[in-house]
Specification:
alpha+beta; Aspartate Aminotransferase, domain 1; 4 domains; four-stranded antiparallel β-sheet; 21 helices; globular; Orn/Lys/Arg_deCO2ase_major_dom; Ornithine decarboxylase; lyase
Length: 615
Amino acid sequence: MENKEHTLTENELKKLPPFTQSLLSHALHERDDFDTPGHHSGAFYEMTEEGNIFTKGLGKNAFLADISDSSSLIGDPFSHEGVSGMAEEMAARTWQSDLCRFVLEGTSTSNRICASALLSENDLVLFDRNNHKSTYQGALIQAGARAVYLGSERNGEGVIDTLDPAFLDSDFLRKKAAAIDPSLAQKERPFRLACLQLATYDGLFLNAKMILEKLGPLCDYILFDGAWAGYENFIPLLKDSAVLTFPLGPEDPGILVTQSVHKQLAGFSQTSQIHKKDSHIKGEKRCLPDDILDSAFLMNISTSPYYPLFAGLEMNALIHRKYGKELWEEAFRFSIHLRKKLLKNLRFIRPFLPPIVHGRKWEEADDKEIMNDPAFSSISKDYAWHGFSHAEDGLSMIDPCKILLTSGSLKEYKEGIPAPLISMYLKSKGITPEKSDFCTILFLAEPGDKEGKAKRLVSALADLEKAFEENRPVSEILPECSSLPEEDIRDLSSRFFHFLHEKNVFSLLNTLFSSEHFPDAPMTGRKANQLWLSGKGEKCPLAEAEGRTALEAVLPYPPGICLLAAGETWTKDILSYFLFLEEYGREFPSFMPEVVGLHKQDGKPYVWVLSKDRG
């Protein structure tokens, strides 16, 4: 019997892909639940007034669609059979991979699955120092692999670049590998896996074609963390980053790509997918069997999923298969229009892009020209507008669908507005940016975004700039934020940037990500974690940590990049940065980021290090 209040017509259901159709057909028919989940289609909640309010707020269908894994109608997502297997196969066809696995616990889990499927203890892994903490956890702590790190750079505004091209030289990398394991360094492919960021949190895409040419011969596999990507297949300008579309041969590495479908694709929060492309090396000893990947998958997932999440992944695949190119063309066009409005209306807050292209201002170009000519998005060696001193032509490109704004400088003192203050102001106006750092703030452009949304953002930023020029009191601009000081906005901003320059934050940041300053690692991350779990650690005051071995990664969030990994030694440079952050938090408490791995005790910061006395 149909639940008429919440049902869909047969014609509507037939338009949906197999898994989603089966789920909704089952969910929207009346049934007697004697299985899990225990709320039994919301009936448990409806026994109370508060529960009724809860079900009303979320909508009855959210509970009707929460069905048991005992149902045989939706296939078996854990063995990838039936309609659930068909959903993953459609995603693989859509992105041109050999195999796709839907993960309902986020790309942190996807990265750990990939690392644990490929890496064994003491393997060598080529490791982007910009990697998300989950890749550290999977490769270095869980698997116990040993890393050869790839360095990068921060520009004057603190923008994160992709990779330093100096690290793409095979002889250089073999020497680095030999310092860790001389025998492995002599192998044709010394690295079992390379773990790289396909797209950075600051909105730069890595040229995967160049990476395959330079690093591919050294690696069995490359894992491209595409948490902040996924649409490169559908935007022609990004063709050199769309690694799953490349024709691959027996000399190429196997490819894994993880995607946070919930970030910029059409998925619910937590949804992610893993793509595997390695049929070109099938039969070789280095080839990863699907069964091993699936075993790692089962070790990391829940066997009691919320199936609407899975349906969202299938719907994402269907939408991209049928409409992907036109939808992302629309999003790209929206981002161009927004950038042009920002350039026209703002003075202190500026989009991160080349100001002059082909002798004209960026904003004077035609939309189609911007969408098709890489010069409008390139990070080049000779045109140094971007401020990266180690740039190589073609290695990095501005993400067309991430609008990064800069509002000041870390390198040289100039008038600007603190990005955390901009973020707070926008949120007070009902506008939510993705994230902010010291003087950068990020916005995501998506299919479905409308011009009215862009106008409201530009208007709010213009109002803030006007308040800045008039030096109005912060309490007047943000009356609901009592934690901000009684100060005029221009005075607060001046104090903010003077503080950052006085503390030499630009040099501190670049030191942390340059190879000559990488910390020593007296033990693997896995060993450090085992010692911590077995009681061989102690809490050390942060100020006394220099020279001690870290048992826990330490990182500011965002962006979730480890500045010190478990098993590494606290250096003077790393300690200086975290001591600066503590001082920054005291000076500007409303702007302080979350720092994972710093623990407060009686108001003072402590870190976990290896005990001097391990007895």
